[in-house]
Design a protein that fits this description.
alpha+beta; Immunoglobulin-like; 6 domains; six-stranded mixed β-sheet; 12 helices; 40 strands; FN3_dom; VWF_A; Ig-like_fold; VWA domain-containing protein
């Protein structure tokens, strides 16, 4: 007899799941031998070609080996038997509609259930070979493959009557005989190439039902056959609609067994469809929730199946009853049970004709089943010893509903004390992560409590002196879990050694910076910054001081009358830069006012919808109107495509398309162009031309605009908003053309690069203004 543990363990191959190495494979001597069972001649037909199909991972033999007939008598071991079954399973998976089937999958997957074993080298007997081969033959027969004829083709007697490579009358004692390599190969000599197969095969369908058939097949070399032109026919019982390799059968109600035929070129396959009158054979019932509270309810569902295990409609004619404990409300094939508060287990019965199905529902008293600490997990910021956190707990029954509180006991693993009755935790200012536990009898719940007493210092603090102010920036930082940002403290001193005074709280976490205004030009100021975080209970902790930095506010050169036009890309990707400029707008306008000797005019143009939108025209001392217009801009659209900033620049220089206020001849003329996109000329497309020979290209036109601005005495300050490397065409246009060509002799180009989050955009604008002095 063959026990369930007969086959030793078999290591799953590395790499592809269907490949094995020679150590445990069939290639004991570098090749497998051509064979037949002991009672069959060693002379046989050619080996099935799938045995050497390496690309399908079904290769069993080495085609370059000699395969001497004398080697057929070599004994086979258990590892080789498993390896052949593994490859045969892969063959059916690849080429047979529906794959190898559950029985084969279960068998082969069982080879991987334990680790590699030396038992794989044990000799295999004929009974083991039969046990492994039988599921394969059963699957092939179910798919319509003539296993008996294949055996005859492989050398079995022409009168062979068994569908298996052995006779059912073989004495059991012979199963213990050792199997040789030839016999193993004879058993797995089936070949399904060169034909088409049905899926599903020999189907049973209830009257007036339907089924979708499909065919799959290969030629003799294993190449898939094009079945898109398959024709379908039916011997009766309904209709079949063609759909390439699919055929859609619809019953007309007539019962009987009918033949479905699929034909594609020289290939043809048939299967049967048996249409039967369904009879309710099996009735089952299930409860949605088998245990409910005294005030609860649950649904029950009945299912009917006919004699071929197809679903049977029982919606009409199903009756319901319950043995007690509540009421049952029927809804056809389902029902609702509502408890009347009586505890116990009650039987619910579904009846349809002569068929009866039962299920049970238990009404159980609600009891405490689960505790859950409401602050789970918790982070506590502790500025000093004695900081407290009141822990609370929620109570749940076995049904997941809240239940009345029970007596509980609280405890903490360390880092402070907790009131065992109320859950009030008091910190001893020892940082760390501790465990808080609440218990009621055998039921408990624990959570982590992280106590934080100090925070790391901010990094990257930098200071830059501007006109009557210092601009501070610092690195981004992360928040501790369970904390939130409260504010920054800005500390200032006129001495590197202090004393430092808190000159104001910055309540905005981003941008990571601040401006200290109202300072004296020429005086050096020293700064450090801290951040204050808070926990969910309002406790706050201030970080360690940052490094100390210094800066000196500077005087601005008085340039005289200034006309400054802003070309501002307002697409969605520019929102960070626009917000940064807004944050320092009062400083920008103030610096222009000072540098111009209180004689300035501002203009604002944006490239809305690939055009030029004049938002503000030049007007005397129009800072308020400019501020209103800038604050009204909503960044949006764009999608990373080129934008018409060049069109905006053209209309400013040409005083066209509604831009009706020219530069004053006596003023310093500046255009500040801020964008992250290449120019488009108004058509959403950028045409590159580094040689500047294609007059229709956007690059040529941008170069011409720079030359025109130079002729008019207009200086262009270019602010490139980009993350990472600046694309070469973008750099050429912004730096080499706009900024460099318009720079006066002896002056550096006014060109700045800022990241896409906009940090530094306002500072770049101020640099443009300061560098615009003659």
């Amino acid at each position: 007899m063959i026990g369930k543990n007969f086959f030793p363990s078999f290591r799953r191959p590395r790499g592809h799941r269907e490949r094995t190495g020679p150590a445990k494979g069939l290639h004991t001597t570098g090749r497998i031998l051509a064979i037949l069972l002991a009672s069959v001649s060693l002379s046989h037909a050619a080996d099935p070609p799938w045995w050497t199909r390496a690309e399908d991972y079904t290769d069993i033999i080495d085609p370059s080996a000699s395969h001497a007939v004398s080697e057929n008598y070599a004994p086979v071991n258990v590892g080789q038997l498993k390896n052949v079954a593994l490859k045969a399973r892969q063959y059916l998976q690849t080429y047979l509609p529906g794959g190898p089937g559950d029985e084969v999958d279960t068998l082969v997957d069982g080879f991987y259930s334990t680790t590699e074993s030396e038992d794989n080298y044990a000799p295999a007997n004929l009974g083991q070979v039969k046990a492994v081969a039988k599921p394969f033959y059963d699957r092939l027969k179910a798919a319509g493959y003539d296993t008996r004829q294949n055996l005859i083709n492989q050398g079995y007697p022409s009168g062979w009557t068994s569908d298996y490579p052995w006779l059912p009358t073989t004495p059991v004692a012979e199963n213990y005989a050792a199997a040789n390599l030839g016999q193993l190969k004879a058993v797995f000599s089936f070949d399904i190439w060169g034909r088409i197969f049905f899926g599903p095969h020999e189907e049973f369908i209830p009257a007036n039902g339907y089924e979708t058939f499909f065919v799959k097949g290969t030629d003799a070399t294993g190449t898939a056959i094009d079945l898109s032109g398959t024709t379908w026919s039916l011997s009766g019982g309904g209709t079949i609609s063609p759909g390439g390799q699919y055929g859609y059968f619809t019953s007309n109600g007539a019962t009987g067994t009918f033949t479905v035929t699929a034909t594609s070129g020289p290939h043809s396959a048939q299967t049967s469809v048996t249409v039967y009158t369904p009879v309710l054979t099996t009735l089952t019932a299930t409860t949605d929730t088998p245990v409910i509270p005294p005030s609860g309810s649950t649904y029950v569902q009945a299912y009917g199946y006919d004699q071929h295990e197809h679903s049977f409609d029982i919606y009409s004619g199903t009756t319901w009853s319950v043995s007690g404990g509540g009421t049952i409300t029927p809804y056809g094939d389902s029902a609702s049970f509502t408890s009347n508060g009586t505890l116990g287990t009650f039987t619910i019965t579904a009846t349809h004709g002569a068929k009866v199905a039962t299920t049970t529902v238990t009404v159980a008293a609600r009891v405490l089943d689960r505790l859950e600490i409401d602050q789970s997990p918790a982070t506590l910021l502790v500025p000093a010893a004695g900081t407290q956190l009141p822990f609370t707990v929620s109570y749940y029954d076995q049904f997941g509903s809240t239940i009345a509180p029970s007596a509980v006991t609280w405890s903490v693993s360390g880092g402070g004390t907790i009131n065992t009755g109320t859950g009030l935790f008091t910190s001893n200012a020892t940082p760390g992560t501790y465990t808080v536990t609440v218990a009621s009898g055998s039921i408990s719940h624990s959570t982590d409590l992280t106590v934080i007493t100090s925070l790391p210092a901010l990094t990257g603090l930098a200071a830059e002196g501007r006109y009557q102010r210092v601009v501070l920036t610092w690195d981004a930082f992360g928040l501790e879990w369970g904390t939130s940002f409260d504010h920054y403290n800005i500390y200032r001193s006129t001495s590197a050694t202090g004393p430092f005074t808190d000159v104001g709280d910055n309540l905005n976490r981003t941008p990571y910076g601040a401006v200290d205004r109202g300072l004296t030009n020429g005086t050096t100021y020293w700064y450090y910054v801290t951040v204050v975080l808070k926990d969910n209970w309002g406790h706050k902790v201030e970080s360690a001081p940052s490094d100390i930095v210094s800066a000196t506010p500077i005087d601005l050169p008085v340039i005289g009358p200034m006309d400054v036009a802003f070309v501002l890309d307002n697409t969605g990707s520019m929102s960070g830069a626009i917000n940064n400029i807004r944050a320092e707008l009062q400083d920008i306008i103030g610096d222009i006012d000072v540098s111009s000797g209180h004689n300035y005019r501002l203009a604002l143009v944006t490239p809305d919808t690939e055009g030029s939108n004049k938002r503000v025209l030049f007007a005397s001392l129009n800072g308020t109107a400019f501020t209103t217009a800038l604050n009204a801009i909503t960044a949006g659209g764009g999608g990373g495509t080129p934008e018409s900033t060049d069109v905006c620049l053209k209309h400013i220089l040409n005083v066209s398309n509604g831009f009706s206020t020219p530069f004053r001849s006596t003023a310093t003329k500046v255009v500040i162009l801020i964008t992250d996109a290449l120019p488009s000329g108004g058509n959403d497309v950028f045409v590159e031309d580094e040689t500047l020979t294609n007059v229709a290209s956007d690059e040529y036109q941008a170069h011409q605009l720079a030359l025109q601005a130079q002729t008019l005495g207009v200086r262009i300050g270019a602010v490139a908003v980009q993350d990472g490397a600046i694309p070469e065409p973008f750099y050429r246009i912004m730096h080499d053309y706009y900024a460099a060509i318009t720079a006066p002799p002896g002056k550096d180009p006014i060109y700045h690069e800022v990241p896409s989050d906009g940090t530094g955009a306002a500072a770049a604008v101020l640099d443009v203004i300061e560098q615009g002095a003659p």
